[in-house]
Amino acid sequence: MPHPDTTLNALHTRLQPLRRAALCKRQLTLSDIRPLLRDLGAQPIGESYEGRPIERISMGHGPLIILAWTQMHGDESTATAAVLDWLQLLRDAADGEQAAAIGLPANWQELVTLQVIPMLNPDGAERGTRENAQGIDINRDALAQQSPEGRLLWQQVQSLRPSVAFNLHDQNPYYTVGASSEPATIAFLAPAYHPDKHVDSARLQAKQLIAHMRKVLAHWLPNGIARYNDSYSARSFGDQIAGTGASTILIESGAHRDDPERQVARELNVLALHAALQALLNEQAREYTLADYYAIPENRSDGLCDIKIHQLTFVPQGREAFQADVCILHKGADYVVDFVGDASNTAGFVEVAGHGKKYPATVHKGGDARALLDFLNH
Ligand SMILES: [Zn+2]
Predict the structure, then answer these.
(1) Separation of 361 CA from ligand 1 center, angstroms?
(2) What is the Å distance from ligand 1's center to 137 Cα?
(3) Are 61 and 95 contained in the same domain?
(4) CATH code of 311's domain
(5) Of the candidates 300, 330, 360, which is a domain's last residue?
């Protein structure tokens, strides 16, 4: 069904060939994105700990400064593909007619300056790790600033003075939308800049933009959008950048059923970013209230596991029989027991009935689940 806003619909349609063309994989490295960085005129702004270039793409030259960065965690590349999709669509909207088709004013480049860092942690990307080459989690380095990547991000914030900042991440696949068993494919947060979680005008605008993005995305994904916990974290960049007066928005890309490469979240990121840009230019987000933000269900951790076994009977030799659910996670090539007991709060991407089956041993958290799975398959 088409979106009632024809400009968002046009954007959605234009995304499809991009999604098929490139970057359709879960882990992106610098060499994967290099051709697009060249195409989009990226410029180096610094270097990683191991000397890889960190690049930034700029578009427009207007007074509204928007800064976005992705892959601060090296193993979180969904939004890297998304921002590169979005920037290609924006580049092709340089003339008035093309701009109007995707809902931007003809002179949008005179109104806004977009600054996008598509891969802040190229060393971690190369290794497939969250941390950088020093082993540091850059998103816990906002105060200590021991990582060159963290220092660079802070320097960019100081020199560009963005009024809107997008901090783009991936979350583990086990988050759900509130109490439901639906995976949180997208989660939003307007981070706090103080332990008391005050809302100043910049944070209000971030919450209004999130409420707007949620409304737009709900057309395509009514049950897959969540709101991240806003406990203050002084060591984290989002919270520190919110403290500079920028309307700061965290977007977490998450799982979607039967979508291991996270292409659904990739597409939704583009639609969300574009809807936010439209709303900043036409002030359409001002109609939203804090209640619209808090109406988004919470992003619940551990609401899902990879395999859930319901009500299996355990009959360890010489001990009393008992019934329990078992939650199993897929880690690399391994299957690992994550929980034994009453798992009524957790759903499985795959669910297996254990009724009537008697397993002749116990299993424990952290243990290998292969023997149990083999037993159930026979
Ligand atoms: Zn992250």
Answers:
(1) 38
(2) 9
(3) yes
(4) 2.30.40.10
(5) 300
Q: What percent of the chain has pLDDT over 70?
A: 100
What is the 77 CA–ligand 1 centroid distance (Å)?
9
Statement: residue 293 has pLDDT above 80: yes
Among 187, 207, 131, 220, CA closest to 303: 187
76 Cα: distance to centroid of ligand 1 (angstroms): 6
Q: What digits encode the pLDDT tens for the residues 73-88? A: 999 999 999 999 999 9
Ligand 1 centroid to 202 CA: how many Å?
23
- Give me ligand 1 centre to Cα 233, in Å: 14
Please name the amino acid found at residue 5. D
Strand partners, 304: 347
CATH code at 203?
3.40.630.10
Average pLDDT value for residue range 307-313: 97
